[in-house]
Amino acid sequence: MADLPVIACSLAAPDLEERLRRLGELGAASLRSRRREGTKEVLLFDGSAAARRSLEEVVSAERRCCPFLDLRLEDRGEAMMLTIEAPADAAAVAAGLAEAFGATDRSAAPSTGRPLRTGSVKVDPAPWR
Q1: Which of 13, 21, 79, 113 has the highest count of CB atoms within 10 angstroms of its CB?
Q2: How is the chain split into domains, by residue range?
């Protein structure tokens, strides 16, 4: 049987708060659009050098703390596309990460209502909306 990924973020609460603040700042500065495709979130950012560097840092950091997420960054010329994909039972985490950039998608499926785990602190998905 294959090893299943652990669906948990390794950030402690203060680090999570700081990460969410930074994501919100990046989104306010350069997010163009967001769409949801099942358990995949697709965000389009401007293609400035600053946005590109920040997004590369975000992808690197998120891969360390949430290895169950599949994050891909693609250069689209004048735009950068960030794709966040999660296993079905972690779709709320992918949506929460997308929403941390300040993005909303009215077609989004409702949360599972289960708390997300970050380190030893439970984080309710509702504040991520």
Answers
A1: 79
A2: 13-128
